[in-house]
Structure formats: C-alpha cells, structure tokens
Amino acid sequence: MPESYLNYIQLAFGIAAAVLIFIGIFISCKKLNPEKYETIPMKTTVISVCLILLGLLCYTATKTCTNMTLVTEEHYDLWALYFATLGEVFKLFGFVALIPILFRLFKPKTNKPKQEEVLNDEEDSENFDEE
Questions:
Q1: Where are the beta strands (DSSP E) in the chain?
Q2: Residue 100 burial (CB count, 10 A)
Q3: Fewest CB atoms within 10 Å of the CB: 18, 30, 51, 57?
Q4: C-alpha angle 89/17/43, rounded to 5°?
Q5: Cα–Cα distance between 22 and 55 in angstroms, integer?
C-alpha cells in the first residue's frame, strides 16, 4: 500500500478518534448538573463509554498506520500489528474510558431538599404570619 494512502487513512481515523472521544466525554459532562442533585443515567454512561472505546479503536488504527511505515521491512501481518498497537494504546490511554464511570460514581454531596419539606416550611411560615 502506498504511503500516501496511509497518510489519508491516518488522518481520517485520527479525526474520527478525536470526535468520538470528545462526544463521549461531552455527553457525560452534559448530564452533570449539580443543581439537580441526580446521578448520570446508566444508559448515558454506557453510551459514553462505548463512544470513547470506539474512539480509542480509531486511534489504534491511526497508530497502526504510523507503525506500518516503521515495520515494513519485517513483514508483520496487519492484524498482528493492529493488536500489538491496540495493547499499547489501551495501556497508555485506556483510563479515558473510565471518565464517564467516575462521573456516575461521584454524586453531588448535598441532598436536594424534598418538596414535602419545602411545602411544610412554607405552611409553617404562613401559620406564623397569621399569629
């Protein structure tokens, strides 16, 4: 395969990786709202982790194209090179997939006042004003 095609493939997978990882983290961050005092839904967490993992797989393809130009003399199989690169990428950047899970685990520390308590406080203040 000519090196010019590898450059285009590398560029396309690099952009796809950046977009997928950014969207995965953005979806989780968008659901973080300290005013609502709610945890991130499980569905959102799963979707975010899947997008980040797809982004890491695309980044692996980018790194594989880089490694193909370096390892052309030794005639490694493409899949062997891809899986070796996959291990390297997950060793270095695998923690990124844990970010949405950490967002889900760390709940806001203060509790939202219950509506019943707020209503009772309002009724008490009204009764106090009448006296």
A1: none
A2: 25
A3: 30
A4: 95
A5: 9
